[in-house]
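RECORD TYPE: protein structure
NAME: Phytanoyl-CoA dioxygenase
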Amino acid sequence: AAAPCRSSRRIDGNGRGERAYMNSRQNYNGKLAIDYEEYGFAGPIDVLSQTEVAQTLRDVKDELSKDDGSRFKLHLILPSVEKINAKTPGFFAAHQDCAFAGLQPSNCVLTAWIALTDPVGETETGEKGDNLLSVGQYIDDTKLKTLEKPVSLPLRAGQASLHSFDTVHSSSPNESDCVRIGLALRFMSCEVQQTKQNAQREMVTRIAGCSRTDSNMTVHASFDFEPRIPASPTDEDFAKMRQIQKEALRREEMNYFAG
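PREDICTED:
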């Protein structure tokens, strides 16, 4: 389960990594759990070798180049991958994931961002280009002014940061000639529920915990549990998992854009 955090903390991602907003105290070195509980984020953390980064990046680029390729739920067709985010021009305004996901308690959900490409260029200030979030999904400037000063959290390829669902974060424009690519993995404890009215039963991958009825099925009040792609998948396996991926995305999108 994610540790509790304060909603006034915010993280801002840009060309050199992710920037975190916190109290005037800038020194957040220390143990990972202590940092996360105190500030609502933690990192950088070395999680992938350069060999693993190169292989994952090749797999992701290959998937994105396909006519029916998808940026989301790639763990269903590419082992170990939860979600891909390739940052072309544009930016994500400051927002909290908890504001539009409908997952509660939100302090039991966290996002792990894993960089697959190195940061390029200098840290950008300001927000140029198109905001990639819809109206109502981001925090307006008036409210942002009540929060604390941002600090930078650069990530090299293979490094990760963690941030709570309550942590305000954003991504500044990518103005380089290189596409910034990373994986976003979302983890939540078994007590988390989907609280939107008439919500679809979203599909998630069981990591640990939760009640089990047999070797192939796990029961949860709000979610259906996804099968895992075999370690050496056949063409038939890929076709089956791609259909499951499409259904999982259909449910998620219906909940995401619901009121």
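COMMENT: Residues 1-29, 122-137 have pLDDT under 50 and may be disordered.
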